[in-house]
Amino acid sequence: MRPDLRYTEKPHHERRDGANLRALLPYLREYRDRVLLALGCLALAKVANIGVPLVLKQIVDHLDAAQQAAMTLPATLLLAYGVLKLGNALFSELRDVLFARVRYRAMRRLTVRTLAHLHDLSLRFHLERKTGAISRDLERGARSLSTLLNYLAFSILPVLVEFLLAAALLLGRYPPVFTLIVFGSVAFYVMFTLAITNWRMEHRHLMNRLESQANNEALDSLINYETVKYFGNEDWELRRCDATLADWENSAVLSQTSMSALNFGQGAIIAVGVTLILFVAASQVADGQLTLGDLVLVNALLLQLFIPLNFLGIVYRQIKYALADMDDLIRLFERAPEIRDAPNARELQVTQGELRFEKVSFGYQPDRQTLFDVSFTVPPGRKLAVVGASGAGKSTLARLLFRFYDVTDGRILIDGQDISAVTQQSLRAVIGIVPQDTVLFNDTLYYNLAYARPDASREEIAAAARMAHLHAFIAALPAGYDTVVGERGLKLSGGEKQRVAIARAILKRPRILIFDEATSALDSKSEQAILQALRTVATDHTTLVIAHRLSTIVDADQILVLEHGQVREQGTHRELLQQDGVYAQMWALQQQEQAAREEERLLGLD
Fold this sequence. Notes:
This protein is α/β, with parallel strands linked by helices. It has three domains: 16-334, ABC transporter type 1, transmembrane domain (ABC transporter transmembrane region fold, Up-down Bundle); 355-430 and 510-602, P-loop containing nucleotide triphosphate hydrolases (Rossmann fold); 440-500, no CATH class. The protein contains 19 helices and ten strands. The protein has a six-stranded mixed β-sheet with strand order 6-7-8-3-9-10. The chain has a four-stranded antiparallel β-sheet with strand order 2-1-4-5, covered by helices on one side. Helix 3 (32-67) packs antiparallel against helix 4 (75-120), helix 7 (176-223) packs parallel to helix 10 (292-334) and helix 16 packs parallel to helix 17 (524-538). It starts with 16 loop residues before the first helix and ends with a helix.
């Protein structure tokens, strides 16, 4: 096994079972009446269950006495026995029916709350996240909530009620030795279960982390299917996932083995307790201190008590497992969003659409600054282009404008309003973007186009597609607008995906437009057609164009040249060429590259 493929265990964080249990309370308040009614049915079911051995004792004693006289059937007692059995079943099922709505509504609320929280977290979190691991944490969290609610309501409370009723019955009717044996066995059983189960929880935590890691590795390799194929690294991906699964397998086997030892120990304690109780009861029956019905009653009570007590060991482990599974989800909730609306944030009011950056500085990491005192203004209805080498900070401007991050210094204003003082929702509503890398939902073309404005009519969507030179392509497809685009839009080419992004920007009808390398995936012919469409769309819009191909922004009102996060040059295309600086050098280089490509095309080498 290659050492770099091995799993490195993360340091174990402190568990907070009490806090996790308290996190369940909000999900019970919505249906508190149902919860109380279900608990009432639970109590009635257990009273009926405890009544069964009492009636059984009366039946046995009646028949034993009848043998010494004339044999008679205790019809009333037999009927009472059946009624109690029926009552126990009825109230148990009513409890389940009443609580079903509570349990599934809680799972629904938790899932929606988690998704909402994930949407609230910053772009930084989502760039660093492991999608597969989060998916597993979400799945286990919702499942563990259901498990906790089920076991707490239907296992822990019923066992406690039944145990208290049985203990009261034993103390009230029989010598203390019976109670001493029962409580001693239960106490030893509980201590043994707690000690072994707590020790086993470390293995469960490790299993969860390994399972999440293996799932993330498998999902990551499938998402990056083409990259894996490009480099022929199928075996590498399989070995990497298999190494994690090997550690998971060892941990799972150890966990299962220790669970078997725990089950045997619990069974041994129960066997010893039952044997001692029956030995004492049989001796007192033989001495005439107890009746035959008392022996049956004690035996039936013990069976009713120890059977759920045996299950309680399993329940305790499952609750501990569920709390462990829920721990990562609770910690996810505790992760505060990096970008928040100010307490007094107001709606952004756009009247003209002027965009201004004032001495903006920013760094993704504290020790690595990306922008340094960047200042520029885009007047209403004008176009400003930003050019520069890769890593100069061009796309960072768009992320800051959308407020995916907050600036370190300086401020960004729209019509004189600092974007950090307005609501994020109102800010993003007035900005449209055509990103460099368009990622689509695994749904239809219609769904992806309508995503910009879900209330748009089909005619409006088709009109936007025509302006983006996309309608003819869609019309030629067998399923038309109902064509499914595949995971992340993999069934479409890069140019087709960018046309979808352009159509969405058109459909949104924003006041401010951002084109981030909007034609990078298009051929020259398509690029010219799309550029004309973009010019039409950008009319009367404040437009920020982030470009690599300088030929696409020669008509910009102003061009900003970024270099290492700083503004090096600023002016029109003609003015920058006259300065004979960085922009002029970039222009000359790209003209040479274009001439070389054209020559290759004419010679048939392309």
